[in-house]
Amino acid sequence: ADIFVVRHNVSRAPIEIANHVPAHVHVVNAGDGSHQHPTQGLLDMYTMRHFKQTFKGLKVAIVGDIVHSRVAKSNIHALTTLGCEDIRAIGPESLLPSDLDMLGVKVFHSMEEGLKGVDVVMTLRIQKERMEAGQVPEGDAFFKQYGLNSARLALAKPDAIVMHPGPMNRGMEIAAEVADSARSVIVEQVTNGVNVRMAVLYLLLGGAQLGEPAGLDQARAEAAQHAGLEARAPVVTTRHDAVARGRADGGTGMHVGEIHPRRGKLVQVRRGDLALRVQTLHVAVAEIVAEDVE
């Protein structure tokens, strides 16, 4: 095999696999336990950029079960890396990690307070399979306190968008009228997921002569043609392999979708405009993970 796409209920399982495969094999983290979900983070950043154009001055609220959410962790790192300075976590204390303040995230236990003036609202699924009994209010009780309904969405900016990584529990974390409203971009979010993951696989498998700008343009055009969408610069990912050597990479400070190669160099994203760049032709082991913050 040339590539493993790994989703596993054990955190860091893709890292372990990458340590036991030949150097030419790519290992893509498709979600590991409650640790990280890098490609979801990439597609969410792409979606926000598409609708909001820039991360400067953007206010983003993430609502619900954050402590068990690999999506939330990847999104927080991505938003921080891309210059978003107002990231909010809203939920009961039992569902919020204790170290959010160290990541620069503002914590709210009230929907009414946390949603004021935000540009993006992302609701998360309640992951009962990872919870102990009684950790959160059940069903209607949770929705009454933390469900996103039309009245609460009205506290956000008039042009605020609503996102959800799926699958949704309508009537628990989000009301049907909000999920299906004109302000919901969940369908577009899903579509972007296909395109971003195609781009990751295409680049890792050596598509369009990695490293050549013309090749990248070709890759974008081909992906857009297959998807029937307008060509846009894909949101990809990572730090240079200097990360593996424990030193900073030119101040890029990438955290989300980080690729740790055994040899060779990787793809790098420019802070601010998300322009895709390729450092070199040789992509060795591509283990797409986010930096461990524990």
Describe, in plain words, how this protein is organized in 3D.
The structure is a single chain. The protein has 294 residues and is an alpha/beta fold. The chain is built from nine helices and eleven strands. A five-stranded parallel β-sheet has the order 5-4-3-6-7. The protein has a two-stranded parallel sheet with strand order 1-2. It is globular and about 55 Å long. The C terminus is likely disordered.
Ordered list of secondary-structure elements with their pairings:
Blueprint: E1 3-8, H1 13-18, E2 26-32, H2 38-52, E3 59-63, H3 70-81, E4 86-90, E5 105-108, H4 111-114, E6 120-123, H5 139-146, H6 150-153, E7 161-163, H7 176-179, H8 186-204, H9 213-227, E8 258-259, E9 267-269, E10 276-278, E11 288-289
Parallel strand pairs: 1-2, 3-4, 3-6, 4-5, 6-7
Antiparallel strand pairs: 8-11, 9-10
What would you say about this model in short?
The protein is α/β, with parallel strands linked by helices. It has 9 helices and 11 strands. It has a 5-stranded parallel beta sheet. A two-stranded parallel ribbon has the order 1-2.
Cα-to-Cα separation, first versus last residue? 32 Å
Mean pLDDT: 74
Fraction in helix: 25-40%
Q: What fraction strand?
A: 5-15%
Counted beta strands? 11
Please report the number of helical segments: 9
Q: How does the overall form come out from the CA principal axes? A: globular
Strand arrangement in the largest pleated sheet: 5-4-3-6-7
Low-confidence stretches: 209-216, 226-294
Sequence of secondary-structure elements:
EHEHEHEEHEHHEHHHEEEE
Structural class: alpha/beta
In angstroms, what is the radius of gyration? Answer: 19 Å
For the sheet with most strands, the description reads:
5 strands, parallel
